[in-house]
User: Fold this.
Amino acid sequence: MAKKRVGVVLSGCGVYDGTEIHEATLTLYFLDRAGAQAIAMAPNIVQHHVIDHLLGAATSETRNVLVESARIARGQVRDVATVKANELDAIIIPGGFGAAKNLSTIAFDGPEAKTNPDVSRLILDMYQAKKPIGALCIAPAMLSKVLAGKGVTLTIGDDAGVAGAIQKMGNVHQESDFAGIVIDTPNRIVTTAAYMCAASIAEAGQGIEKLVAQILTMV
Amino acid sequence: MAKKRVGVVLSGCGVYDGTEIHEATLTLYFLDRAGAQAIAMAPNIVQHHVIDHLLGAATSETRNVLVESARIARGQVRDVATVKANELDAIIIPGGFGAAKNLSTIAFDGPEAKTNPDVSRLILDMYQAKKPIGALCIAPAMLSKVLAGKGVTLTIGDDAGVAGAIQKMGNVHQESDFAGIVIDTPNRIVTTAAYMCAASIAEAGQGIEKLVAQILTMV
Assistant:
């Protein structure tokens, strides 16, 4: 039987300016352990900014989202602009500020955010093809903007501000914690709070493990 | 009961010029899941070089090992120069070229390599205190140099060149694959091949999961 092909959308490498590394790595781990094929991808764009993760402050450096994402993917990462929905059985978007700063402008513009056109096109194609979509941590806020007005149900944990933004986008927020997943069965969307609520990597892993299993069940 | 405190020595962020991200993340995951406290640390030095992980080629950038390691540790990483062996119950060194280019010069100098003095001091103090030491992937070659002449038994998988270098350093190489661990009981050292042999993250995870469990048993 052919492996299930799951796109993993990266947004850089590091929680404050890119993909949350633990969330992405555990997603890849649980997918591979279940016998699925992960296909890592990212947009070929300049990062919004570079954060020194030791000091928590912006630096004067310039880094590229695709190039930095390649660190998480051990070099095997595709430009999302070249990926078509018919190559994938499902898609998962890990969190980290990259989802809110590089894949979208959620971190700055809330419900008025813009989203990356290539990522948005792929998500919309997956949605219209009724293929399952997973999102972790803050990534459901970006997903909510791409699917604005469709009334999809999502969780970003229990942050009232982000939950309110999701509702303003015409979607439904459901509270959850790190151990749970929220399943929107008709829309084939699965979300989990991960580090929006988790205090440690094993806590984040609880929801991510369930999300990956649920996505593969829905394929 | 107090948590077991396990130092995790990082060497940057990315397989080709720093810590192998999957190996480090899975080490942190298995430690946390087992109820241990991981204490991430790295030397505050400039990286040997920066590799574009998409192209596999060196760039003109300059990055700091401690600052980049903070990406894997979500900001919580200590300068290894400030860490004392009496703060730790055990130590684990993930792989990636950072262990062979930043923590040591193994990648360039083989058995004649130099090793970072702060990392070497901490490893030697742990060894003399009979506290367990774990190393993954290529990191056992660096460990072998720090413990040169002590006749410790290690694995880096089945690479004949690196195995020969370990023997030239006065230690013993034992072949293994990604699923196995090599335990040197009298010297309290546990090693696993990880991505030296593994073709995927779940394969690497097999040995890493066993190594973490073994290290915690030995504490």
In short: The longest helix of chain B spans residues 201-218. Chain B has a mean pLDDT of 98. Chain B touches chain A at residues 13-16, 20-22, 25-26, 28-29, 32-33, 52-56, 61, 66-68, 70-75, 77, 200-203, 205 (CB under 8 Å). Helices of chain B lie at 21-33, 65-72, 97-101, 106-109, 117-128, 139-146, 160-168, 201-218.
